[in-house]
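Bumping with the actual sequence this time:
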Amino acid sequence: MTSTDLYRDITDLAHDSPGWIHTLAEIGTDGGLLMLAAAAALVWWRARHDTARQLALALLVPVATVVAYACSEVAKTLVDEERPCRAVSGAAPSIADCPPTGDWSFPSNHATLAAALAVGTVIAWRRAAVVLLPVAALLAFSRVFVGVHYPHDVAAGCALGAVFALVCARLLTGPVATRVTAIRAVGRGGPLGWVAGPGPRAAFPGGQPAGTPARHRR
């Protein structure tokens, strides 16, 4: 069975499904990304006061996601694959509006983003796998279900996102953790606490600089 045949089967299934499933699929295709992004933000929040390595892993989730998305956009311009909702004859009408010509199909940006966010977050927080990986898979499937991507588009997007999440974690965790440790050592936590460390008071014995007048010391 080819990807085109599978696309026809899935869109036929979508066409015959109840209207509320159509609505759920259309909402989920973007709502799933918001859920995954929220999970990535939660992992960063949990890691603010954790080890430098854990914080580095959390910080690398958006980095890997942005890089993977940029690469998917480059791939789209190189492949120039027309959307199946226009190119596949005999297929059921797409549930979602078919993107305009020039908004190419391969790979799926949604699937790329979903996989990068899900895999990167799971690397930083293993227990989240039971929720985030199924969400990413359902989101990728929904892009075929609503009729705007071939199955091979979402498969390639998932692979691209997952690979970049894994590569970034493998190659960059050490350097980023070293930088986090250095910043924490001088008590220079960012305004949002992204490298929250001991704080400026802890950098001085007794919590105050040596030259602080006695009347200001507590």
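The tokens above came from a reply further down the thread. The two ends are 76 Å apart (CA to CA).
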